[in-house]
Specification:
Blueprint lengths: L41 E3 L11 E5 L2 E5 L8 E7 L6 E7 L20 E5 L2 E8 L3 E7 L10 E5 L3 E8 L5 E7 L1 H4 L4 E7 L6 E10 L12 E5 L2 E8 L6 E7 L7 E6 L10 E7 L5 E8 L5 E11 L2 E4 L14 E3 L29 E2 L8 E3 L4 E4 L1 E2 L11 E4 L5 E8 L7 E8 L2 E10 L2 E13 L4 E10 L3 E2 L6 E13 L8 E11 L6 E7 L9 E8 L7 E10 L1
Parallel strand pairs: 26-37
Antiparallel strand pairs: 1-22, 2-3, 3-4, 4-5, 6-7, 7-8, 8-9, 10-11, 11-12, 12-13, 14-15, 15-16, 16-17, 18-19, 19-20, 20-21, 23-27, 24-25, 25-38, 27-37, 28-34, 28-38, 29-30, 29-37, 30-31, 31-32, 31-33, 34-35, 35-36
């Protein structure tokens, strides 16, 4: 749904870089990683083959802004920008670090869950849940600038997926779901009045819908709108991998709410389809952004046309007289009124020539200033004392998979490592794999390591690692090490009650001293993280309590 009309002078360049100070290094890719814009007036789904889960979006004038979950990775809450709903770039993060001190360490599956973004009376609002800590609000006058320090407007565990809403009379409300793992029950939506400034809640909390009583089990992710005097709450139900889109409708903000299923998977390959956002164009078209869980790559973003029948939405295209829609895989691009748009996508490759880290990068936990340094033409990663298994190292520098299949080459200089230091490249999920190079007795010893996190109800109970030594190398070879990270489709796997399988990806790690001839370190099948897709990236660590050693990353180059 459109936000209030707001003049903006942003142009296509902002889709590539936030500012000179925060821009990524040169994108070295020889071509695009994922081509959603077909160049003929049409687009294909997904529009983003990357793990921007639980998306919410708004239109402000001619600009579209989208945010997504970030869990324990920091900076958190990526903000994406588009002019046409098809071409998107990351332009900012809402928070530099996750609130609460315990996130100095990675707490997989916790942290920042499904957020909402809104624009009201000249200000942008982002409301996000942390299921163990509460519901937070952050604001900004300029979405490309600095956002305010988050305020916990509802302390306590249990509520998730909040969405603020401002009514025509100036009153404000907050609708939210619940997490059974924290509160003991699920499939319930609550509504509460909110302060008009968004910085606190007022009065009694009302249960407005119970999916356990209405065949809408696991209803969650509510997003609230108003149209033609009706209050609407868009909320997926049925589960992430096998569910559908439900819409609630009422003439009263606190209900009672009638409901209707408005999009199903049908005979398409888009399982779910899950949580998202209703937006419109300046020409009056309606569209819906949502995600699809594809297992290893995470939760990728789709764009669906939306229409109306008797004041109920139909998302996608209704077939055979159905009153609900099914997802489209290819469709005419939105009519955004002749606004000039560029073909773009989130950055992936990086030569580290920017003044700050590129916006494609996130740390495994809240970062510290002494973890790294940008030298002007490379990235220096300091050798930090490693006190835990690799998957729980806070200083892993990671980014999302940018395509269903790709190759990523990282060039490392390890000549500055001290005895007991190591550095390498990791594929991070609940099952993770890495190749690491340790300086040991004047030699460079490569290892291939596989770790498996075994989860209890919320947090990992144990993590098991296996470590395989590879052929030792002369220390003089450490000046240039190339690590090739390859993701290839390797069939499908059935993880749901449907007959449609999920992609099965084979991850291969190999290394070279000349960038031409590679030796395979090892391979593994991809397993996503806790609610997140697999990420890949770099690290530097040490057995020493204090080390002056470091590794240099000269570049990271992605190719299809």
């Amino acid at each position: 749904m459109s936000a209030e009309n707001h003049e903006t002078e942003r142009n296509c360049a902002v889709n590539q870089f936030l500012t000179t100070e925060r821009k990524a290094g040169t994108n070295m890719a020889t071509d695009r990683m994922w081509n959603a814009d077909l160049g003929n007036g049409k687009y294909r789904n997904p529009i983003l083959y990357a793990d921007y889960s639980d998306p919410d979006a708004i239109r402000v004038g001619e600009d579209y802004f989208m945010i997504a979950s970030s869990f324990c990775n920091a900076p958190g809450l990526p903000l994406l920008h588009s002019k046409d709903l098809v071409n998107w770039s990351v332009v900012n993060y809402i928070i530099d670090e996750i609130p609460e001190t315990r996130y100095k360490d990675p707490i997989h599956g916790c942290g920042v869950w499904a957020p909402a973004i809104r624009y009201h009376e000249g200000a942008y609002f982002v409301c996000f849940p942390m299921p163990d800590e509460g519901i937070y609000m952050s604001t900004a006058a300029d979405p490309f600038g600095t956002w305010s320090k988050p305020v916990n407007i509802r302390p306590g565990a249990g509520w998730i997926d909040p969405c603020p809403f401002w009514d025509d009379d100036g009153k404000a409300y907050l609708v939210a779901g619940v997490a059974k793992s924290r509160i003991g029950y699920k499939s319930v939506l609550h509504m509460v009045e909110m302060q008009p400034d968004g910085m606190g809640l007022i009065g009694e909390e009302h249960k407005i819908f119970d999916g356990n009583e209405n065949d809408q089990v696991t209803i969650e992710g509510p997003k609230m709108y108003k149209r033609n005097g009706w209050y609407y709450i868009f909320a997926p139900a049925g589960g992430v991998k096998t569910g559908w889109q439900t819409v609630l409708r009422s003439k009263n903000v606190f209900g009672p709410y009638a409901y209707k299923i408005v999009m199903r998977q049908g005979d398409t390959a888009v399982n779910g389809p899950h949580q998202g956002a209703w937006v419109d164009t300046v020409t009056g078209e309606d569209w819906f952004l949502h995600f699809q869980d594809v297992y290893g790559a995470g939760r990728i973003t789709h764009l669906q046309p939306m229409s109306w029948r008797e004041d109920w939405p139909v998302i996608g295209i209704a077939k055979d007289g159905n009153d609900y829609g099914e997802p489209v895989m290819e469709y005419q691009k939105p009519d955004v009124g002749g606004v000039e748009c560029c073909v773009c996508e989130p950055e992936a490759s990086d030569d580290f020539t920017g003044k700050q880290l590129g916006l494609q990068w996130q740390w495994n936990a809240n970062p510290q200033k002494d973890w790294y340094e940008l030298t002007g033409n490379s990235l220096r990663l300091n050798a930090l004392h490693k006190e835990t298994v690799y998957g729980d190292v806070p200083s892993l520098l990671l980014q999302k998979w940018p395509a269903p299949e790709f190759t990523c080459v990282t060039k490392l200089d390890l000549s500055h490592l001290e005895e007991g230091d190591e550095a390498g490249v990791i594929s991070m999920g609940m099952t993770y794999g890495l190749v690491t190079f340790e300086r040991k007795d004047g030699r460079l010893v490569p290892y291939f390591v596989v770790g498996e996190q075994k989860y209890g109800k919320i947090l990992p109970d144990t993590t098991e690692e296996t470590r395989h030594a590879l052929a030792e190398m002369d220390w003089n070879q450490a000046k240039e090490i190339y690590v090739k990270y390859t993701v290839k489709r390797d069939g499908t796997q059935d993880l749901s009650s449907t007959e449609k399988g999920f992609p099965l990806e084979l991850v291969t790690l190999a290394y070279s001293t000349d960038g031409t001839t590679y030796q395979k370190a090892g391979e593994m099948h991809a397993v996503p993280g806790r609610w997140v897709g697999v990420k890949n990236g770099v690290f530097c660590a040490s057995k020493n309590t204090v080390s002056k050693g470091y590794a240099i990353a000269a570049y990271v180059q992605y190719e299809r």
